[in-house]
Each structure stands twice: as C-alpha cells, then as structure tokens.
From TrEMBL:
GO terms for cellular component: plasma membrane. InterPro entries: LapA_dom. The keyword Transmembrane applies. This is DUF1049 domain-containing protein. The keyword Transmembrane applies. It comes from Minwuia thermotolerans. Residues 28-91 form the Lipopolysaccharide assembly protein A domain. The chain crosses the membrane at residues 45-68.
Length: 111
C-alpha cells in the first residue's frame, strides 16, 4: 500500500512540475537578446529558453558540487571495501579461520 501511495505522490509531483514548466513557457514567449559582452555576437531567444537553460545550468552546477563534496565519503567507502576484502583473504589463507584458544562460532539455528 505504501508503495502505491509513494508512486502516486511521485506522479503528482511530476505533473505539478510539468504544469509549472508549461505555464512558464507559455507566459514567457517574448524574445530577448542574449549577449555575452566580450564577444561581439548576440542571439535572440524566447525568454522561457533562457529561464530553463539557467535552471538546467544551476542543476548541473549543484550536482557537480555535491559530487565533489561527497568524494571523500566515496573514497572512504572504497578503502573500507578494500580493507574488508584484504581481511577476508587473510582469514581464508590462515586455514579454516579457527584458533586453538577460542572455540569456533556456531551457525545460528533456522527458526
């Protein structure tokens, strides 16, 4: 039941964003001149194209910033994975993994 509600909410959110995007596009159809000052060229574009391009550029910049920020976490996770693999290899190479001064762990019984 919870999955159905979440799917419905996702669809509802998507439709709301779609309606907002369409209304922005329809209400901002006038042409604007896009000019980058050092370059002598200018281009006329509909205002909604400029708005959506700016929003997309902001999305990309934010995603890149998050990816760069989370690089430390990904690196630590990789190091932990390598360490776990090394320890597993070490246990396999040491025989059956049991020590004489400590009894072997019993497997849990199925319930």
């Amino acid at each position: 039941m919870e999955r159905i509600v979440l799917k419905f909410l996702k669809i509802l959110l998507f439709l709301a964003i779609l309606v907002i995007g369409v209304s922005i596009g329809l209400s901002n159809r006038q042409a604007v001149e896009l000019r980058l000052e050092p370059v002598p060229y200018a281009i006329d574009l509909p205002l909604f194209v400029v708005i959506f391009a700016a929003m997309f550029a902001g999305l990309l910049i934010g995603a890149l910033a998050m990816w760069l920020r989370d690089g430390r976490v990904r690196r630590r996770a990789r190091q932990a994975e390598h360490r776990a693999q090394d320890l597993e290899r070490e246990v396999r190479q040491s025989g059956d993994g049991e020590r004489a001064d400590r009894p072997a762990l019993q497997k849990p019984k199925a319930a």
